[in-house]
Design brief:
- The structure is a homodimer of 236-residue chains.
- Chain A has helices at 15-29, 37-46, 48-56, 65-79, 89-96, 108-118, 129-139, 149-152, 159-168, 183-191, 226-235; strands spanning 3-6, 120-125, 147-148, 176-180, 195-198, 221-222.
- Chain A has 236 residues and is of the alpha/beta class.
- The first copy, chain A, has eleven helices and six strands.
- The radius of gyration of chain A is 18 Å and the shape is globular.
- Chain A folds into two domains: 3-14 and 102-235, 3-Layer(aba) Sandwich (Rossmann fold); 15-100, DNA polymerase, domain 1, CATH 1.10.150.
- In chain A, helix 7 links the parallel strand 2 (120-125) and strand 3 (147-148).
- A six-stranded parallel beta sheet of chain A has the order 3-2-1-4-5-6.
- The termini of chain A are close together.
- At the A-B interface, helix 7 of A face helix 7 of B.
Chain lengths: 236, 236
């Protein structure tokens, strides 16, 4: 196994906590007092899969995630009865880049540093290049390359997203392992011939999370977190 | 200025020395005694621009540089009266990956480490992703991302190669600086609105080099090497 590809939102970084933090700051600055920041983050994120599905289904040409996030932000503001037109569009673009400023889970940076010693490590995320690059620079994520949906013009779990990324690496699918906290991502990667590694992120969706609490298949590796995955690969 | 993009072959790594080293090893292993490795490297490289021109001119769809290098290797072997058909294609593929195993100039790794502290740094090379990634992993080049011709499906100096890369970074052209030891690369980058930095590599083509020995225009920065460029940006 030569390369490890990582899901990012949820697996490497805490999107819900980071977006809620930025929404809280934004609301405070604009005198918006009746919004639960975590509920806003959940509502914004709920529009993520439907927006990408327009692209995956071929009803819309590929556009980067920053664009989908911005459209979804407008829709979420409307759903919370916040009049986006009264807000400065520069401020809204800045809020949209909350997704560039997410914090890693505590094991992510030390785990990735260890995994990088013997493997190529790169994100295979639906996030766009600038988003993933700005996030990595801020958080110290030691990626060897910034890969993902924008580079291959296909959103996960479209098989093209995995296969084109493997091809860019000049590797065979079985030389590459997809690492994710989401079983559906791993099912799609395995169907393309990749190895798979699962780790749970039981508070990704907040305290009441009831999905992806455990592996639902016999993935190549099942780890507690990224440091445990490094331990297992060291011992293998 | 937020990002620095680097030409790689010649500017960051010594392609001639590295390819000649690998050609010498290959010839020794196959009992080929009448080939000057540096002359072979020059001949192989001489086919580089004409091969890319087929793509730039639209006569051929984009193909990655590994493919062009492999075709050019066959042609170079023929020009040296070496029968490629008698050689194992696995061995030839391995020789083709000599371009993945080039050594950096002595100032490159320390210079890039310093430049990375305050800027996004990435290659904008005609090399493909796997080539640049394997090179970086072997040589310790601390790129924040692996960008270049393959990611944007355009070979330098096609304006699309610069403009699409700037767009991927989510930046404006004037926020990005192209760094190269080749004046023509910088002329093309400046025409797209990028800032420019020149540094000479007077032995890139060997002891008799007569091109690109000095800046031929008033580039934004003119430096002795990458450490000097870091000094100048620190002082700016």
């Amino acid at each position: 196994m030569k390369a490890l590809l990582f899901d990012v939102f949820g697996t490497v970084v805490d999107w819900r906590g980071g977006v809620a933090r930025e929404v809280a700051t934004f609301c405070a600055r604009h005198g918006i007092t009746d919004v639960d920041p975590a509920a806003f983050a959940d509502a914004w994120r709920a529009r993520y899969q439907p927006a990408m599905e327009e692209v995956r289904a071929g009803r819309r040409p590929f556009v980067r995630l920053d664009v989908l996030h911005r459209e979804n932000l407008d829709a979420t503001l409307a759903a919370f009865d916040i009049e986006a037109r009264r807000l400065d569009s520069v401020d809204l673009d800045e809020l949209n880049r909350a997704w560039h400023r997410l914090d890693p889970w505590p094991d992510a940076v030390p785990g990735l540093k260890r995994l990088r010693q013997d493997h190529i490590i790169a994100p295979l995320s639906n996030g766009n290049v600038a988003l993933l690059l700005n996030m990595a620079k801020r958080a110290g994520l030691p990626w060897d390359a910034i890969l993902g949906a924008e580079v291959v013009a296909a959103y996960k779990p479209d098989p093209a997203s995995y296969l084109r990324t493997v091809d860019l690496l000049g590797l065979a699918p079985e030389e590459v392992c997809m690492v994710a906290a989401h079983n559906d991502d791993l099912h799609a990667a395995r169907a393309c011939g990749l190895k798979t590694a699962f780790l749970p992120r039981p508070t990704e969706h907040g305290p009441g999370q009831c999905t992806d609490l455990a592996a639902d298949s016999n993935w190549t590796w099942i780890a507690a977190d990224l440091e445990d995955l490094a331990d297992q690969l060291d011992a293998a």
